[in-house]
Amino acid sequence: MIIIITGTNRPGSNTRKVTTHVEKAYQVLGVPTQVLDLADLPPELFLPSAYEKSPPTFKKFIDAILAADGLVVVTPEYNGSIPGVLKYFIDMLPFPESFDQRPVCFVGLAAGLWGAMRPTEQLQQIFAYRNSLVFPERVFVPGVNNQLGENGTLNPVMERNLLQQATKFVSFVEKVREKKFPRAN
């Protein structure tokens, strides 16, 4: 299963709209997915006591990450960086097992010209530090407001880019799984 993380908790975000298109790319390939939307994080996760013991309501997020064959992080650019809620989410997941040897790829979107290149690079560093297997082919959605139609459609070039990334990432994930769980001859 591929877990797709919507990297913001902003209501009505473009990130959620792009996540829908990422999910669709994997559906075209027949790959099961689950979306983890950070807007659904339980409020009690943000209490200081959560650092000592995460609330039981956060368990479904932990379980999804630990069961994932691969992760796709869809991140917007907020002030030249990743959203604080995304970093907090990463920090609250168990170390080291959440990302250790787990394939991860990135989709960045921004209103500006570079399509969240900075936050995506920052995430690559964070996930590499956490020993994940960072897939090098990223998709950037620059000028996201011009890429998304009013009814939620996405520019066909971007749709193609997402499908190409998904196809290659699925192959990457399968190779990692084969290495971890070789078939008996």
Characterization of this structure:
With 185 residues, the chain is of the alpha/beta class. The chain has one domain (2-180): 3-Layer(aba) Sandwich (Rossmann fold), CATH 3.40.50.360. The protein is built from six helices and six strands; from the N terminus they run E-H-E-H-E-H-E-H-E-E-H-H. It has helices spanning 14-28, 59-67, 84-92, 117-129, 144-147, 156-180, and strands at residues 2-6, 33-37, 70-76, 103-109, 133-134, 139-141. The longest helix has 25 residues, at 156-180. The relative contact order is 0.17.
Shape: globular
What value does the average pLDDT take? 94
- How do the helices and strands follow one another from N- to C-terminus? EHEHEHEHEEHH
Q: What is the number of strand segments?
A: 6
The radius of gyration is: 16 Å
Portion of residues in beta strands equals: 15-25%
Which stretches are low in confidence, meaning pLDDT under 50 for 5 or more residues running?
Answer: none
CATH superfamily: Flavodoxin domain
Largest sheet: 6 strands, parallel
What is the subunit organization of this protein? Answer: single chain
Task: Quote the distance from N terminus to C terminus.
Answer: 25 Å
**Tally of separate domains:** 1
CATH architecture: 3-Layer(aba) Sandwich
Q: So how many helices?
A: 6
- Give the class-level CATH name: Alpha Beta
Helix percent reads: 40-55%
| CATH fold-level label | Rossmann fold
Broad structural category: alpha/beta
Give a quick set of tags describing it.
185 residues; alpha/beta; Rossmann fold; 6-stranded parallel beta sheet; 6 helices; globular
